[in-house]
Amino acid sequence: MPNWIVDLLGSFMNGLALIALAIWAAVFSPREQQKKPNRLHIFILWILAILIIASLVFQILSAFRHYSYDTELARYYEDNRFESSRMIEHRKQAAAALKEYLSSTNKNWETLTNGTDDLDYVLGFFDELGYDQQHGRISADVIHEYFYADIVGYYQGAAQYIAYSQKSDSTTDFSYVKLLFDSVREVESRKTRQPISALDWTDKELADYLKSEISLKESK
Question: CA triplet 74, 79, 85: central angle to 5 degrees?
Answer without folding.
Answer: 140
